[in-house]
Amino acid sequence: MNITSLLAQDQTPSSFSLLPSDQSKWLLIVGTVLVVSILLFLLTRAPSNMRRPVVVSITFIAGFLYFLEWVLPKYRITEEGQEVVRQWFFGLSYDYSETVPILSRLSQLLTGILLALGVFSIFRLHVRRLLKRDPNWLFSLVLLSSLIAMAYIGFSKFGMERSVEYRLMTEEQLKATNMYAAYDLLFDKGLQTLDAAMFSLIAFFILSAAYRAFRIRSIEATIMMAAALLVLLSFVPLGIALTSWINPDSVAGNLRIESVGQWILLKLNTPALRAIDLGLGLGVFAMGIRIMLGLERGVSVD
Prior knowledge:
302 residues; extended; 11 helices; two-stranded antiparallel sheet
């Protein structure tokens, strides 16, 4: 299986895709690469006092485009009285639902580039450890071997799923192939099992941390401990059995442990979570403003 069949996509070309037979596609690719390379080269050669304004300006423009969606009118009325979407450059519109798919493709391209840089960084770091035989170099060997094996099997499985033979095979025939057997061994039986083991260890760690945090030293800690105990008892059979003798149809049925637990979750916990979400939203908004204006440390080039 070659790289052409692996990357073949049977999708309708979008505004950022040209027909394969169109020579302008290669000119567009080469021109884009040259322009971006020149801009990056000029940015690296620019004086230190010029790098920050350039990066801050690009960041501000990228964030300001999304801000314009909320303040500019999305539609206009034509002379015939029809309501049409306002258009600006490169087919983008003020309608967020039409703009996002185009911008998301650009985000996916950037994500792929960043992922490739991350993989390259991992290889460079762990290959150096292997060559120098640093302490725990065996862990680096296991990491690189697992990364290469999983990437090869994943891409091969992806290419096989896009072939004509795959559509004609039954589920039993697919499971009998070596590629699916290797994928099942590494992913289903290997990675997911290790994930379950790690999450179980994390659960015990959280339990021990909660035990240390729930020490009753004040009135607030006492209230929190009592509420947590009631909610926990409302979800286990032992706790429900403690108040099972109370008639659920009577007024006293509100004192059953499961009713008390639901009341705490719905009447006390939900408003508190909404207040936390409101605070987080305001914090994210403030952080976005700081990033757009270049006030956040680590965002711009110093």
